[in-house]
Write a structure and sequence with these properties.
34% helix; globular; mainly alpha
Length: 131
Amino acid sequence: MLAVALAACAAPLEDPARFQEGTTGTDDDACADLDVELDVLAPSCGGSACHAAEGPAAGVDLATPGVAARLSGVASSCDDMLVIAPGDPDASLLYVKLEPEPPCGSQMPLGGEPLDEVALGCVRAWIAGLP
């Protein structure tokens, strides 16, 4: 994970969109070798007290591989949002709960450090790329 963070530090200024309000700046190269499910969600959210395989909070297991297959198109209890809305991170509760001030409940990971900009951007790109 350290290599991912370091790769994103020297992002070129050729990508002005990453400085626009409301966008999460991420270097595509930072996400290229990253498995969002295994490298971001499982360690950050899949802890034993949270979204682990056994007894996950809100029934959302983020520790077991296959998160996208299990949670895409699944209704959530928040404002008619889906847990994962393939292709639409802003309509995906999984993504918006990682941002400050989500529409329902608290920012995740609850009681932990929020995801850094690179990891958050990779989650966003991952959901945006889901069919």
